[in-house]
Amino acid sequence: MARSSANINSPDVIKRFRSRFVDFDSKCRQALTGVHADVRRLLEWLKREQGPYWRQQFRRREEAAEKARREYASALHGRKHTRKVSVVDEKKALDRAMRLKEEAEEKLKAVRKWVLAIEHRADKLRQPCITFSSLLASLTPRALARLDQMLDSLDEYLRPDGPAEGGGAAG
To answer: Could you say which residues of the chain have pLDDT below 70?
Structure first.
């Protein structure tokens, strides 16, 4: 198979490409590290802060709802001389307490759902990220070495006195 040749008057094109390739490699590695850190931080926040917070809120709101239920029942069915004429305030307090309890329960379910969803999606993407990271680790040094070899060959070729005796062409 015949090799094609290039008419290159300056190695600047390869130098710029090499520089951009190094930047690309660096940005890819930073992105992979950043994504991993972001996912880990998000899961930690959900598990260690939001989960316990909403469990505590649910317990508190459950207790508040039970207290409001007792007060409503007491106002509704209390002794004749202690019974209130209107139980509207107690009913409103009970309804509000029940809404707050349901809200906490929904938030707690949402936290659990998001933890599972994020863990599942992160697991699915972990292997492609590892593969890409491995490719960067193995191919980048080889590619840079090849570019450096090309630059050395071009420098030798473009010297004013021509290539040195016995020097090989870029290959």
So the answer is: 1-9, 79-85, 162-171
Rounded Cα–Cα distance for residues 5 and 141 (Å) = 25
Beta strands in the chain (DSSP E): none
Amino acid, res. 152: D
The two tokens of residue 80 are 């004749």
Could you tell me the two tokens for 6? 């290039």
Q: 132: which 2 tokens? A: 């890409």
pTM across the whole model: 0.65
CA distances from 57 to 65, 99, 101, 107 (A): 12, 13, 8, 10
Calpha distance 67→55 (Å, rounded): 18
**What pLDDT does 170 receive?**
47
Nearby residues of 100 by Cβ (< 8 Å), 6 or more positions away: 61, 64, 65
The sign of the dihedral angle between the CA atoms of 135, 138, 141, 145 is: negative
With tokens 């390869």, the residue in question is 14
- pLDDT, tens digit, 9 for 90 and up, residues 88-112: 999 999 999 999 999 999 999 999 9
